[in-house]
């Protein structure tokens, strides 16, 4: 008999909602169905504005966005259930990440804020909803991110092979999976993933993103400029560490562009190199024994970025192979939504998530609030 949970995820790329229907029966983790709901351009613009470091927004507008996203998340669940022909009564729970609008792990009062009202999701779907996963970790002294490494360990860790999983969304993060399960896993945000490239192409070509990295591939990488970008203090920080679009923002990029003489395509190519170079630098510094790099997230579809990653790996870790998570049983676009279905199950089973080495929490804690 199936043991169904639903995971809902909307990431820093602000493109839409991923919904995964996951079956945990027979001690396995299997995707049963998947649905995606894109955001309208108007909603995307509102979320981008709210995510800026100096954003000013009224409480009325903030509350409206929270409710709007709650309705959209609930509608996506209904779409998923209809697609799978599965009744709501068959679902144990929904795990909703929500939409991060501000992540501030280093502020005087640490916090991470996600919206998409879980009360609305639970009420509209009739399904127990678990949300607000990050703040309990922060209350335990952690940064609240990244959270997916625990799921990566459950799905991708393999005895006798040292692996790393890199998720390239708006922000890129890695999970270091030692060959022996007794060793603690490590995970952290390496820096910008797609966010700066997305912003740059939107500004210059009015495209939402650089399809397959085709525009970046026409440019010439300014290695000296990228070297200067990599002097940013974030890259030198040891883990645990996490970041977001609040830090690697439009303002951050514009400041670095002062007095730079390069074509827009050259800058796009250089930003692509920055993403690849900071990922590989993290592997070099914290996972030099990696034998297999598994890539997921939207960045896996950027052919140019994947080519750069492969070239850099050959220079630094020639024995390391690189491939999509699809070769290991999970489509790269489905990993994060499946992770929140898994996290919801852990919550209902009262299983603490040991994230001390990843987020810096001082104890393993049960994550998320439950909305019956």
Explained architecture:
It is a single chain. The protein is of the alpha/beta class. The chain folds into two domains: 4-144 and 333-371, Nucleotidyltransferase, domain 5 (2-Layer Sandwich); 149-328, ATPase, nucleotide binding domain (Nucleotidyltransferase, domain 5, 2-Layer Sandwich), CATH 3.30.420. Helices cover 39% and strands 21% of the residues. It contains 14 helices and twelve strands. It has helices at 41-50, 59-84, 118-125, 134-139, 149-156, 195-205, 214-217, 223-229, 233-236, 250-256, 264-286, 303-316, 335-348, 356-359, and strands at 4-10, 16-23, 30-38, 91-104, 111-115, 129-131, 163-168, 171-177, 186-192, 292-296, 321-324, 369-371. The strands form two sheets. Strands 1, 2, 3, 4, 5, 6 and 12 form a seven-stranded mixed β-sheet that branches. The longest helix has 26 residues, at 59-84. The protein is globular.
What is the strand and helix layout of this fold?
Elements: E1 4-10, E2 16-23, E3 30-38, H1 41-50, H2 59-84, E4 91-104, E5 111-115, H3 118-125, E6 129-131, H4 134-139, H5 149-156, E7 163-168, E8 171-177, E9 186-192, H6 195-205, H7 214-217, H8 223-229, H9 233-236, H10 250-256, H11 264-286, E10 292-296, H12 303-316, E11 321-324, H13 335-348, H14 356-359, E12 369-371
Parallel strand pairs: 1-4, 4-6, 7-10, 10-11
Antiparallel strand pairs: 1-2, 2-3, 4-5, 6-12, 7-8, 8-9
């Amino acid at each position: 008999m199936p043991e169904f949970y639903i995971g809902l995820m909307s990431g820093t790329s602000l493109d839409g909602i991923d919904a995964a229907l996951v079956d945990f029966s027979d001690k396995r983790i299997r995707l049963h169905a998947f649905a995606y709901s894109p955001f309208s351009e108007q909603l995307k613009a509102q979320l981008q504005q709210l995510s800026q470091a100096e954003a000013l927004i009224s409480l009325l507008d903030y509350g409206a966005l929270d409710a709007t996203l709650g309705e959209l998340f609930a509608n996506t669940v209904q779409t998923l259930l209809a697609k799978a022909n599965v009744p709501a009564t068959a679902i144990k729970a929904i795990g909703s990440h929500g939409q991060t609008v501000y992540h501030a792990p280093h502020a005087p009062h640490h916090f991470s804020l996600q919206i998409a009202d879980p009360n609305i999701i639970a009420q509209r779907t009739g399904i127990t909803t678990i949300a607000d996963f990050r703040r309990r970790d922060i209350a335990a002294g952690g940064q609240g991110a990244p959270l997916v490494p625990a799921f990566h360990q459950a799905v991708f860790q393999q005895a006798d092979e040292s692996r790393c999983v890199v998720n390239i969304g708006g922000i890129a993060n890695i999970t270091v999976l030692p060959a022996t399960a007794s060793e603690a896993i490590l995970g952290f945000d390496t820096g910008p993933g797609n966010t700066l490239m997305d912003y740059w192409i939107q500004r210059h070509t009015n495209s939402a993103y650089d399809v397959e990295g085709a525009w970046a591939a026409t440019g010439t990488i300014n290695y000296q400029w990228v070297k200067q970008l990599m002097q940013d203090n974030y890259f030198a920080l040891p883990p645990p560490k996490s970041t977001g679009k609040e830090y690697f923002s439009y303002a951050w990029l514009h400041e670095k562009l002062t007095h730079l003489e390069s074509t827009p395509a050259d800058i796009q190519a250089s930003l692509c190199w920055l993403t690849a170079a900071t990922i590989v630098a993290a592997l070099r510094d914290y996972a030099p024994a990696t034998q297999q790099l598994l890539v997921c997230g939207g960045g896996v579809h950027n052919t140019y970025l994947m080519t750069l990653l492969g070239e850099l790996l050959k220079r630094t870790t020639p024995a390391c192979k690189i491939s999509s998570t699809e070769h290991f049983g999970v489509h790269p676009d489905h990993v994060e939504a499946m992770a929140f279905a898994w996290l919801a199950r852990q919550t209902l089973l009262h299983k603490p998530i040991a994230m001390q080495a990843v987020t810096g929490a001082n104890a393993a804690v049960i994550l998320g609030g439950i909305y019956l």
